[in-house]
Amino acid sequence: MTHKPPYIVDGLQYCRWDRGIFEQMRTGQLSAVHVTIAYWETFRETVANMGKWNRMFEQHSDLIFHGRTGDDIRRAVLENKTAIFFGFQHCSPMEEDIDLIQVLYDLGARFMQLSYNNQSLLATGCYETEDPGVTRFGKQAIAEMNRVGLVIDMSHSAERSTLDAIEISARPIAITHANPSFWEPALRNKSDDVLKALSASGGMLGLSLYPFHLKDKSDCTIESFSEMVARAADLIGTEHLGIGSDLCQGHPDSVVEWMRNGRWTRDLDFGEGNKSQSGWPDPVSWFANNEDFGNVTQGLADIGFNTGEIDGIMGGNWVNFYDTSFGPENA
């Protein structure tokens, strides 16, 4: 029988949200999910997306609510609901105005990537040929994010920029959805140097279940994934590992084109230069939706993780990170 961790937290999802998915979250017993509410959106467009979420919180209040603190995850468990935490996969919602970081935090944002694949005003994305690192503006943004408690996410950022962010940030950062490159050398996956620096600074890695980040892509087995988690634990310790599934359920291909193209190109961006990646990949057989987290839990048990380690990876480590990362540091 599969062990049931006290918390199941997903470090990143971007689904076509509806009641059916929220019901799947409850079947999968998710305590909390960090959801993407902006890729290339402006501040005003991001606020509009927040408004849509507020309507969903009202319409589906028996299933979900807006999470803002680590304690909201504990509340979700007590109330048999899922806490939804807002995040951005790019810095576009703050536009070129550092004061908007506080405003976005006050509106409920808790994570922001400094770059999404490309060079941004703050840092370099992982698809750029050259990586000059975190920019002058980026250093100021990091300091302000540290001050208010908006978590720095470097999931789509390049190597030097990520190492810079870890060094510059006075608070631990997160890589919410990526895997070690020692297992699968996708551009989005992270080197041993990054993982060691991340863990040494107290940061978190959310392990991705998105097929383009997996060894053997859609044919990846739970055994292979679990072996990778075990190797990552040997490298940086289980306490720095969580799940960041990058589940993108129910969207048409036009949405993945928006994620990659935004407004910056008229061409179709194929991600990592592979035209076979022009649409959504087929999910792995053991993780198709939010009902399948038990398969991940069982895979970790089968590879030899003990109950405490499983509880941490499946959600407890994220709870600890949320407890200390949101809001002013000495509040």
Summarize the structure.
The protein is of the alpha/beta class. The chain is built from eleven helices and nine strands.
Q: Segments where pLDDT lies below 50 for 5+ residues? A: none
Helix percentage range: 25-40%
Oligomer: single chain
Distance N terminus to C terminus?
42 Å
Shape, principal axes of CA atoms: globular
Overall strand count? 9
**Fourth-level CATH superfamily:** Metal-dependent hydrolases
Would you mind describing this structure in some detail?
α6 (about 160-170) runs parallel beside α7 and α8 (about 220-235) packs across α10. By secondary structure, this protein is an alpha/beta fold. The longest helix has 19 residues, at about 305-325. It has helices at about 20-25, 45-60, 70-80, 100-105, 135-150, 160-170, 190-200, 220-235, 255-260, 295-305, 305-325, and strands at about 10-15, 30-40, 65, 80-90, 110-115, 150-155, 175, 205, 240-245. The chain starts with 8 loop residues before the first strand and ends in a 6-residue tail after the last helix. The strands form 2 sheets. Strands 1, 2, 3, 4, 5 and 6 form a 6-stranded parallel β-sheet that branches. Strands 7-8-9 form a 3-stranded parallel β-sheet.
Show the helix and strand layout:
Layout: E1 9-13, H1 19-27, E2 32-38, H2 43-59, E3 64-66, H3 70-79, E4 82-88, H4 99-106, E5 109-113, H5 136-148, E6 151-153, H6 159-168, E7 174-175, H7 192-200, E8 204-207, H8 222-236, E9 241-243, H9 253-261, H10 293-303, H11 307-325
Parallel strand pairs: 1-2, 2-4, 3-4, 4-5, 5-6, 7-8, 8-9
